[in-house]
Amino acid sequence: MNHNETTDPGTGSALVPASDSSDHGHELLPASLVRDADRFENPGLPAHVHRQADDDPKAARRAERQVATLFGLSMLATLVFLVSYFAIPDESVFFFPGIGRAKTQNVVLGLSLGFAIFLIGIGAVHWAKTLMSDEEVSEERHLQASTDEQRAKAVAVVKEGVESTQFARRPLIKYSLGGALGLFALPLGLQVAGSLGPVTVEELKHTIWDPKDNGGKPIRLMRDPEMTPIKFDEVTNGSVFHVMPETLQKYIDEGKHVLEAKAKAAVILIRLDPNDIKVQKARDWGVDGVVAYSKICTHVGCAVGLYEQQTHHLLCPCHQSTFDLTEDCAVIFGPAKRPLPQLKITVDDAGYLVAPEGFAEPVGPSFWERAR
What we know:
This protein is an alpha+beta fold. It has helices at 31-38, 52-55, 57-87, 104-130, 148-164, 171-195, 201-205, 248-254, 258-265, 280-284; strands at 6-7, 14-17, 28-30, 93-96, 100-103, 219-223, 240-245, 267-271, 290-294, 306-308, 313-315, 322-324, 330-333, 342-343, 346-347, 353-355. It folds into three domains: 6-38, no CATH class; 52-135 and 149-195; 202-355, 3-layer Sandwich (Rieske Iron-sulfur Protein), CATH 2.102.10.10. The longest helix is centred in the first third of the chain and has 31 residues, at 57-87.
């Protein structure tokens, strides 16, 4: 055995130093591994291939202009988004081949915003491929902590990498990229400021259950999704109906705002023994034990659709908020803070269930303006 070798007490195999350098220390490895490693040559790095922009200042300036053009087109697409948001009527629709009728504004906004971010991405890729440094760099890894000198060297490498992007040397790219990214942020702020608020309590209360949307006449309750009317004598004790207003049909026929209308108008209709209803208002707003409540949970707006007949509890599947039908849908468990709003119903001359008025309070997640 070589005098520089030692023996692994566990396996009896020879161990040799993995490296004699002061940086790595004397790490002992099995001699067989060292001999196997000697059979493979270090492939090294391939010869660096210079790009045209590396050696030709004209090519570099041309690439700079191309990148700036892409960023400029991104700004133009963002401006199209901003103009379209205000200029295209919300009711404007057109027939899209293969899809059907679509809102013109949605299509233009989606395409313009998509092109804006796509052009920023393409510009960044072209910048990296033509102007940023593509010198291959490798660094040997070691097990010991870095010294102060090595950390300083790493910082220097990072700074050198930043300089290799030529960001400081190419003001045209810097300003065009800043403009593209700056303009691209505007649609996001516009969506928040223009589409999400502010709204009034009356707007929150309004749903398509409002008789004003039906010429002032009571609105028939329709099965969802069949959109067929419900007769009072069809609602047996313990039965559950998922209900939409008859006025939804107008939105379906026109092909606009259907999802928005359904999201606020969803109602659950249930019949229980009138003697089980403990709140007088809930009995008065129903018909012989048939009551209708909003399906939109007052926590975060999930659909409340699970009914337990023995306990008369309604359960929201998202966060387990539980409402007691016998107590005018008061919250008895979970994070919801408000009862489900009740929809007042009656029976018309033909025996169909109808809603003579809309909800008396906002549906959905809780609002501080609500009376209870």
